[in-house]
Amino acid sequence: MSIFLYFHLMRHRDFKYFYFFYVCQHRRIELPRLVSYNRFVELMDKTLLPLAFYPKTRCFDNCTVISYVNSTPLRACHIKRAHSNMVLKGLATKCQCIIGWLSGLKLHFVINDKGGMLNFILTPGNVDDIQPLTGRNLRASIYGKLFVDKEYISQSMFENSS
Questions:
Q1: Tens digits of per-residue pLDDT, 99-126?
Q2: Between the CA atoms of 93, 96, 102 and 105, what dihedral angle is there, to the nearest 10 degrees?
Q3: Contact criterion met (CB below 8 Å) for 114 and 66
Q4: In the chain, which end has fewer C-beta atoms inside a 10 angstrom radius, N or C?
Q5: Do 2 and 34 touch, CB atoms closer than 8 A?
């Protein structure tokens, strides 16, 4: 998981180049039992689940009086290639959102006024933005004022907020 995270933090574009010319040459001392590139690529999919749950267990901040909710699309592929794409098959969906057509997921997150993350949730692309806020999982640790974008506002949410 460390190699995978470090690859994204270093902003490399080619993972194979990063693995051969950075990890294998410069990090051999820290990683004495380093596997071959082909084996590493096979093992990478086993790190996805722990990487997804790590922020849920370790990275949350405390709620202050002011919180913000927003969402961002996570594209699986270009919309024209969605019919043949195998990435996130069964999870990624096609939909039209505020920025255009999307084939992928939406990441909804809550932050406090200091920029600390309070919670997040991943939804399929075709799920309405209001739905994650109707459940208790995203709003569980939030109190005080909640500021949201236009797509999160509904009459039922206004009535339930008081």
A1: 778 777 888 888 888 888 888 888 887 8
A2: -50
A3: no
A4: C
A5: no
Domain ranges of the chain: 2-57, 61-161
- Own/partner pairs for 49-52, CB < 8 Å, 24+ apart? 50/1, 51/1, 51/4, 51/5
φ, ψ at 88 (rounded to 5°): 55, 35
Q: What does the block give as tokens for 81? A: 């290639």
Looking at residue 123, its amino acid is: T
Residue 162's alpha-carbon distances to 18, 30, 105, 144, in angstroms, are 52, 54, 30, 11
**Does pTM top 0.70 for this prediction?**
no
What would the mean pLDDT of 19-34 be, rounded to a whole number?
86
SS3 67: strand
Residue with tokens 């009459």: 155
How many of the other CB atoms lie within 10 Å of CB of 138?
A: 20
Distance of CA 121 to the CA centre of its chain: 8
pLDDT in tens, 41-84: 888 778 777 777 777 776 677 778 888 888 888 777 776 776 77
Strands 66-75 and 145-147: parallel
